[in-house]
Amino acid sequence: MSQKRNIIVGQSGGPTSVINSSLAGVYKTAKERGFHKVYGMLHGIQGFLDEKYVDLSTQIHTNMDIEVLKRTPSAFLGSCRFKLPEIHENPEIYEKIFQILDKLEIEVFIYIGGNDSMDTIKKLSDYAIVKGHSQKFLGVPKTIDNDLALTDHTPGYGSAAKYIATSTKEIIRDALGLSYNKENITIMEIMGRNAGWLTAASALAKTEECEGPDLIYLPEIPFDIDKFLKTVQDLMKKKENIVIAVSEGIKLADGRYVCELSGGADYVDAFGHKQLQGTATYLANFLGAQIGCKTRAVEFSTLQRCASHMASRTDINEAFMVGGAAVKAADEGDTGKMVVIDRVSDDPYQSAAGIYDVHRIANNEKLVPREWVNKEGNNMTEDFINYVKPLIQGDFQPFMVNGLPEHLVLNL
């Protein structure tokens, strides 16, 4: 078999605890399919424009390195939040990208990321077709938000859901231990700007020995603060300890984020997204003032996306699968596509890699279906539980050294 040219792979957006498993899948499959070199962009397309990249064979030497990489959280290559301009706005930036690709003899460009990253794949593949470039462009899904269209779910979501459900159970136990003759309200703030998949996962905490969260609020449903207060007051007539899960992006009917009521969300990123924080703190202070009991706000923040010690084996394996599937698809001639996860069966749970046109995915958000939220809009239905439960199954233990997990790190 004649040796093929080179592949380059990058990571973009907020990392996950399994994003490097997709990178491992790209690297291993590219080597197996006879590609000469596998380059890694340092800090995604932004670093690539500065010609920052590394030959991954200088970093990954053995099969054990691949196994450690699969267990390493965050973006091994470094990530970025960089929005490519429209082609007509800045054609020079595209000319530069393709000059670098030609210099490195790149045959396949793979980008591991979410919605904004798929926008990058769409623009580069469109430019290549118009200008007659031969490179293939493939997207690999990655986001704990689970909001990519056409895929049953996204790599990273299952592990984040597992961490959120576990932490919710632990927070409930902690709160119960201090609830004797004392009213307690704990509000957990979970990531989710427009889609509430992560916050919904807190419902998994309801098990034989745990009641789960009392209330769950998602950004898909307008938040009524007066109704919220009355619901909590009614609950407190029945129990002393209340645990509530809220998405950071819950909004009032007029479109304002709840966190903006306290003056938050001033910072805006390159994609026009407001930085959301302080939702739980605002609501805890609000309830404390209105009800006069002890309240506590807990922000899961970045912990929910980097807790590789709680990774789901299903998630790790699927992340590896879609990385390899992207290489295979490009090698067989596909471009302008994203690999997806298709659910083949529920019992037993089985999945397979599929592939769709990235134009049908980029810049589209998949929201939690209304029918998966209860009529009151403050908890999840059994249909949601059945959907998410298979995704958190299995453990993927890290390799422990002196009591702590071992990670693979770049050596430049």
Structure description:
- The chain starts with 5 loop residues before the first strand and ends in a 7-residue tail after the last strand.
- The longest helix is centred in the middle third of the chain and has 20 residues, at 157-176.
- Strand 7 (215-217), helix 8 and strand 8 (241-247) form a beta-alpha-beta unit.
- It folds into two domains: 6-143 and 309-363 and 394-405, Rossmann fold (3-Layer(aba) Sandwich), CATH 3.40.50.450; 157-306, Rossmann fold.
- The chain is α/β, with parallel strands linked by helices.
- It has a seven-stranded mixed beta sheet, with helices on both faces. It has a four-stranded parallel beta sheet with strand order 7-8-6-9, sandwiched between helices. Strands 12-13 form a two-stranded antiparallel sheet.
- The chain has helices at 19-32, 44-49, 63-70, 91-103, 115-131, 157-176, 197-200, 225-236, 279-291, 303-306, 313-331, 382-388; strands at residues 6-11, 38-41, 53-55, 106-113, 136-141, 184-190, 215-217, 241-247, 294-299, 337-346, 349-357, 400-401, 404-405.
